[in-house]
Amino acid sequence: MKQPEHSTPPVYVAGESGVAEERVRSQAARYGPPDVADVTAGLRINPQDFSYMVSPSRWASFKFALSGWLHMLRYQRNTRIQAAASVLVVLAGLWLGLTPLEWAILVLTITLEWMAEFINAAIEAAVNLASAEMHPMAKVSKDVAAAAVLLGAVSAAIIGVLILGPRLLARLAGG
User: Fold this and answer.
1) 14 found inside a domain
2) Cα 1–33–123 angle (5° rounding)?
3) Does 1 map to a domain?
4) Are residue 32 and residue 86 in the same domain, yes or no?
5) Are residues 24 and 110 in the same domain?
6) Catalytic residue among 5, 21, 117, 133, which?
7) Relative orientation angle of helices 58-75 and 100-130, to the nearest 10 degrees
8) Which tens digit of pLDDT belongs to each residue from 16-55?
9) How many domains does the chain have?
10) Which of these three, 5, 30, 50, is where a domain ends?
11) What pLDDT digit, counting tens, does each position of 116-174 carry?
12) For this structure, is 117 an active site residue?
């Protein structure tokens, strides 16, 4: 990670107590106290200064994203169900001869539901990492993230019925 020329990075020792506090002190010294009235303050903060790992290339970033997707398919049962549903919807759309607009709506709907599932899993992982014991706010965080997925799934089902339903009924009725 390339450090800005005007600063020297603090030294961290893994597992040593106070590492997080030292990092916060170092960042406060570098960036100064937050000025809530300065709407451009965030533009002066380099996110790479706060990350323990920065992707070395676009290809590496793509591989990290693919790794996350494969992790979801392997360890998250709901993601496998979602994958099967997505394949069935695409096959039904091909069989029913959807219009480009109908395809656009279905692809957007499927994508948003996948994204909700991924964000939910990321929130759950972060909460598990941050809270070793059961905390009421950890439960709230996980429940709200799961509710977002549920909302997306219900919306996707409704959109699927609205787009595929009439054509499917007509096709099955012999029309």
Assistant:
1) no
2) 60
3) no
4) no
5) no
6) 117
7) 80
8) 455 556 666 666 666 666 666 677 877 878 877 777 777 8
9) 2
10) 50
11) 999 999 999 999 999 888 889 999 999 999 999 999 999 999 999 999 999 999 999 98
12) yes
